[in-house]
Here is the input.
Amino acid sequence: MSVPPSPTELVAIPSPYVEPRIAFQAQVSRKVDNLTLIDGKTFLSTTVAGDIVPAGAPDVGFFQDDTRFLSHLELRINGQPSIVLSSNTERSYVSQIELTTEQMKVRDSFEIAENTIHIRRQQLLNGETLFDRFSLVNFNDRELNLSLALSFEADFVDVFQVRGTARPTHGQYYRPVRHGQSLSFFYRGLDTLLRETRIEMQPAPGRIEDKTAIWDIQVPPMKHWEIEVVVTPIVGEQRKQSTSSEFGTGLLERRHRFAKWETSSTRFSSNHSIFDAALNSAVSDFHALQISDGGERIIAAGIPWFATMFGRDSIIAAYQALALNPQLAIDTLEVLARYQGKEDNPSRDEEPGKILHEFRQGEMTRCRELPFGPYYGSLDSTPLFLILLSETYNWTADASLVKRLLPAAYSALDWTDRFGDFDADGFVEYLRRSPNGLTNQAWKDSWDAYMRRDRTVAPAPIAPVEIQGYVYDAKYRMASLLRNFGDTTRAEKLKKEAAELAKSLDKAYWMADRSFYAIALDGEKQQLKCIASNPGHLLFSRAVNRERARTIVTRLMRQDMFSGWGWRTLSDEEPTFNPLSYHRGSVWPHDNSLIAHGMGAERVQKTCDPGIDCVV
Here is the structure.
């Protein structure tokens, strides 16, 4: 158990750091792959050498719960950086990096030839703890006197600052503190919480100069020498005993956790080794992205910037992983029901019955500089919650789950009619109320996702077409589910509402002049007449008849929409098309997966009309 610092040890200092958006505003993005390890809401992003450099750069660091606890980690041998021979990761939680040195001259004028010193660096994430182990071997014919140095920094910046959000004020930094074999960095945020990065080193360094630990070592020929570094993030009074304080034991624990997950999950095999490898990688990723919340686990949206729960993303991931492990869906439903909206709170775009969009716990969120603790600005997470509940019951027949969640389901249905359709036109739409919230609150949530063909941004409120399909599917499914659980009155009402919505959707969104569905209705109830991927989701939700479904399939398979790598978010024939943008022509895996899911239905088998330029 780590020991809290005494008041005399906390010596206040001015901030030694410049915000990433200022320090790196002129930096050219590095076109290299970082190594990334993840364990739920804790992740590490380094260079292929395992270093966090440049110090404070926006694409590297050791993060836990939306805070960067390590902003600089760099190995040097006799003052020189190491050379990478190879690097790889095992199941997203441990990396192995093979390093060597360039030719260099030591103090006695003996020159060390290149490729005669081998350093194996292994980094492991186990829970909230980072292990960094070095094993150095001397392949020279004489003893070497070497200086091995590890430099550290901990800027404690919020993940949103790392992403470029400006922050005019910050909390109090303190001078680093050394305790025997450990070095600790401290910061007290504006939320009053004291955050600590504790770095424990074995063996203890011979000296620490500023924030660099230095070992002066003698390594005989063909002998090896080891260092093990353990980095632990600590917030407030949550000074936990780490799951293990030793690399080998930690690795065994992590492998045991993965083996337990793998044993409880479906196993897949085929006659194609590459396909099997891709499936096994996906199984590993689902394990690495799990976040513990109470007694349940929910899938994080992704790394590096979305290592937290997102209603939409967590639901879709759980839905698509039902064949792998239905417990993920069960836990996801339980967690999201726990955070379901309870009040009408414009500052968080919260309303009773609404399923959250995003939940953060970093300093900026805790200080209410951002509305994400939790934030509810998502129009689609609520109907998707109902869809997941229905589909999970279809797979598991878990009546007790449904009974536990029926209050949440009724509340979600009430939100759809009362708050989702706030102008009572029969369609759900969004209009941001939080001044710091998202302007666009569908899955295409970038500011320019909903543009008219004349390049003007469509006025809110916006009613995206795919979300009407989600609502249709949610009501249709819940009609069946509630009938099974005895509420025939509400079931009949929902079935009728679903049928009416399908008719209204077709009438309001179908573009007769373009033979396709509009991407959305804008604040003036006008169609956004763009050819986009959104209508493809209507195949997933089964909200259109067979004839319309085949028309959607045929149109999506034309070359302006289907790139060969996937379906574009926007046709390359549209005036606003930009394949490098976020949502105006790029290809999104989740978008494609829902479209492909819908196309897989027997009633919408792909056909190409004669005379149409269609990719087969």
